[in-house]
């Protein structure tokens, strides 16, 4: 038994396996996976299988079993393959403000923030030009099948729509990134701003999947919609970024509306105001006793910020300028 397996054994003995089962979710798993010396390649493969089986959820139950089995295997046989720390890839221990260990690997303490709830939720860009009207009508049309399919199932609706909402920022950021490379030009911070938006939307999704478990046909729908929407938005952004950003601005206005309806149903008791997922408490620096209502409130504020960023971006193009000529709202939440 080599020294790393011995360490794993000692750790298991001291903690009674608790170190593998404690903690919240993907973050905990991630922290452990970076500790090369204690994890073999086989373990990482098993972890991948476990994560897949968990189906995006951060509920640690299945993963715990796999990890425990792996540790037990090392104890029994001592022939597990151990990856050395040759590459130096180990994340330093991080702490929360209250001194407890930082459990997440999918986002860091410096990525967290307190949502600005003072933002004006009622702002609306009145469509004036032909392209504005096209964008507005397109979004209103897209809302019809969404309303029919989901009706007032706002949890499910939010989860599905977040899979789409995280696409435009990534597409826009990617195109600006490539343009920056081609033209040897600075982006004015817009690459970062748009990628931040994509990441923020993805965190909305990671939060919603804690509350709503997607069914197989919903996963299939996501695959289909993503395949179509990614490509359509990519082409649209190449042809007319001002229209693309205007469409997203109106989509975000609809998102603010949907989350407002979501809140109404929570307040009326139609949707249970369950405790906030751990990932949301850390990401938005919410109090420990935060609830779904708090989470939806901060997500709605994020959507209002995205609305402003995208209408602003479209306005810049309308003035005949490129985005890089105006300061990008980096870190705007
Ligand atoms: Fe969102
Ligand atoms: Fe959004």
């Amino acid at each position: 038994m080599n020294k790393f397996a011995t360490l794993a054994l000692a750790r298991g003995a001291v903690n009674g396996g608790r170190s593998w089962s404690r903690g919240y979710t993907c973050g905990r798993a991630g922290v452990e996976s970076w500790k090369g010396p204690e994890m073999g390649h086989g373990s990482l493969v098993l972890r991948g299988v476990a994560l897949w089986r968990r189906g995006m959820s951060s509920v640690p139950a299945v993963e715990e079993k796999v990890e425990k089995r792996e540790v037990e295997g090392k104890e029994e046989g001592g022939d597990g393959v151990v990856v050395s720390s040759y590459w130096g890839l180990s994340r330093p221990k991080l702490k929360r403000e209250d001194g407890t260990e930082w459990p997440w690997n999918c986002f860091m303490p410096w990525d967290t923030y307190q949502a600005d709830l003072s933002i004006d939720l009622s702002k609306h860009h009145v469509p004036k030009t032909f392209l504005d009207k096209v964008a507005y009508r397109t979004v209103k049309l897209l809302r019809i099948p969404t309303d029919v399919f989901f009706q007032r199932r706002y949890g499910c609706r939010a989860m599905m729509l977040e899979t789409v909402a995280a696409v435009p920022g990534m597409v826009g950021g990617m195109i600006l990134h490539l343009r920056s490379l081609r033209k040897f030009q600075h982006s004015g911070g817009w690459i970062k701003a748009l990628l931040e938006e994509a990441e923020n939307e993805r965190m909305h999704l990671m939060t919603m999947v804690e509350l709503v478990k997607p069914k197989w046909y919903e996963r299939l729908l996501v695959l289909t919609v993503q395949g179509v929407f990614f490509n359509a938005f990519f082409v649209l952004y190449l042809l007319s970024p001002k229209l693309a950003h205007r469409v997203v601005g109106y989509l975000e206005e609809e998102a603010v509306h949907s989350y407002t309806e979501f809140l109404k149903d929570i307040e009326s008791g139609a949707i249970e105001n369950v405790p906030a997922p751990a990932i949301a408490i850390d990401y938005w620096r919410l109090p420990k006793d935060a609830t779904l209502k708090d989470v939806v409130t901060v997500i709605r504020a994020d959507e209002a910020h995205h609305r402003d960023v995208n209408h602003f971006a479209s306005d810049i193009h309308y003035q005949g300028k490129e985005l890089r000529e105006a300061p990008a709202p980096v870190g705007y939440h």
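The chain has twelve helices and no strands. Residues 162, 165, 201, 204, 255, 299, 303 surround fe (ii) ion (ligand 1) (CB under 6 Å).
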